[in-house]
UniProtKB/TrEMBL annotation:
Pfam families assigned: HTH_3 (PF01381)
Protein name: XRE family transcriptional regulator
CDD domains assigned: HTH_XRE
Family matches, as SMART domains: HTH_XRE
Domain annotation HTH cro/C1-type: ranges: 14-67
InterPro entries (alphabetical): Cro/C1-type_HTH, Lambda_DNA-bd_dom_sf
Coiled coil segments of this chain: 106-133
Keywords: Coiled coil, DNA-binding
Length: 139
């Protein structure tokens, strides 16, 4: 069994991003100034030259890196972390699940506040010491 990762199929990534954007091959072809058959050919090829990839990325509203590193697992992860909740009035609300522990975030905030308070107290002590020094020098 090989541990070498298989190369990404750029054409397939372009196709999936185009479909997720609800864009037809014809629309992409018009946006980049080629025929629909050319777009079909690009989507069937494993590699795409950088200049053409940049034009396609711009037409799809993403960067070239997004196309190169596109992962369906990441898309499904995002979709899996969102779900619909039906309100009593019949409308649907999209709710996003937490990807962090709110209690941990609250503890982090308390720690930051404590450190800020300690720094503030230290700064005030320094001010008092400086004022006392100035007052003793004046006498």
């Amino acid at each position: 069994m090989s541990t070498v990762p298989k190369p990404r199929h750029i054409g397939r990534n372009i196709s999936r991003i185009r479909e997720l954007r609800d864009m037809k091959q014809e629309a992409l072809a018009i946006a980049i100034g080629v025929s629909q058959q050319t777009v079909s050919s690009i989507e069937g090829s494993e590699n795409v030259d950088d200049e053409k990839l940049k034009a396609i990325a711009e037409a799809l509203g993403v960067t070239s890196d997004v196309i190169k590193n596109f992962s369906e697992d990441a898309v499904f992860n995002i979709i899996g972390n969102t779900f619909d909740i039906d309100n009593n009035n019949g409308s649907s609300v999209i709710s996003y699940g937490c990807t962090f522990n709110p209690f941990d975030k609250m503890l982090e905030a308390f720690d930051k506040n404590e450190k800020l308070y300690e720094r503030l107290v230290e700064a005030e002590k320094e001010k008092v010491a400086l004022l006392e020094k100035l007052l003793s020098e004046k006498k």
